[in-house]
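Q: Here's a chain of 147 amino acids. Please give me its 3D structure as tokens.
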Amino acid sequence: EQDNLTYKDRVEYSKDQVLEIIKRVWVYVIIGVGIGAAIHNWIPESFITAILGKDKWYSVLIATFLGVPMYADIFGTLPIAEALVAKGVGLGTALSFMMGVTTLSLPSIIMLKQVVKSKLLAIFVGYCTVGIIIIGYVFNTFGYLFL
């Protein structure tokens, strides 16, 4: 059926899809920008680096688990991560936070629990957590190559 669409139909379909995505994510983007602005303007750099600084071996672990109670999509976490990096947080730590929010958020896990057996969900959470932490440490170690 999609193969028979005219150019005009495809453009209209694309426009509808973009508008649908915007309707679903705009709130999270605004919240993320607000949190990012608060971090950038009100939270002292010394406070953030004392907990999540580049020299703290545990920063990736904390950032990963800080994302668990939050519920946002990747667009909502980008402004927060940008503000954290600007305040001296390592690239891997910020990346771990973003992945923790989008993958391990408690609301997402609760929703997954409705359709996935507990054992499989535990395996999923375990593998994702380990993967996020490994990626965080790799990017903290080699992040200077990317910036």
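Q: Can you summarize the key feature?
A: Residues 99 and 132 are 7 Å apart (CA to CA).
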